[in-house]
Amino acid sequence: MFILKRQDVEITSVLHPKKDQQIPILHYQGQNFRLISVFNAAQEDDAKAFWRDLTDNRGKACVLLEEPERYSVWGKVRMEQLAVDSDSDTDRDDSTQPAFIQACVLLLQAVYIDVEDLLGGRQASLFENELMGVFQKWQFPQVSTPNAMKQLLTVDPLGSTAMPSWQEHHLNTLLQELFRLGKEHFGNGNFTGRVLDALQDMPANERNLFMSWLKQSPTGKDWV
In the chain, where are the structural domains located? Predict the structure, then answer.
């Protein structure tokens, strides 16, 4: 579809009909778009490649928003879908997210444990501070305090009913930033192979679904 500038659009938020969280909505020429993924300013090529893949290869109606500090991809949505259509693509995405959130938390914990075990407590503390900065910068729900983040690093994702209610764009952003932090701490991206082993604790069907999603995600080429 289109590449837009911030002055071209209006961005508001609506309350999710099933969860106590706000959904960012972009309005452009009478059409509404829901946030799919966010990229930092240095990821222009990745953002455009992801946007073109969605529009050209998967037939989705999407816009790419260019801002000074970031790029973001938004998918077209009907507002009534969010309220009443339980069979919509949007709701199907929501229904698959709990396992995806669990998988991302497992990966996050595995990177943190690797940093602590291989590089020591000082690097682990630095990693925690950097991670807190990521959560605050990108406004992740339910991890806005250091205590909440520490709980996330220690909770059993597969046994807890208190996983954060993140949307897909949060997961994409987390994986992008987690890869960046891991690469900075370890000096290369080779850590991903051993970190992905943490997913073996998941049920096979959920792990396979997540891996399929991961391969198509904006950062999939870095992880898989």
Answer: 2-83, 90-215
Measured distance CA(33)–CA(31) in Å, rounded = 7
Buried/exposed 172-188: b ≥16 CB within 10 Å, e otherwise: bbbbbbbbbbbeebbee
Bridge partner list, 27 = 10, 32
Beta bridge partners of 74: 35, 63
Domain with residues 2-83, CATH architecture: 2-Layer Sandwich (3.30)
Q: pLDDT by residue (tens digit) across 184-208?
A: 999 999 999 999 999 999 999 999 9
| Sites in the chain below the pLDDT cut of 50 | 84-96
Buried b (16+ CB within 10 A) or exposed e, 28-58: beeebbbbbbbbbeebeebbbebbeebbeee
Residue 180 tokens read as 């960046």
Any idea what DSSP says for residue 32? Answer: E
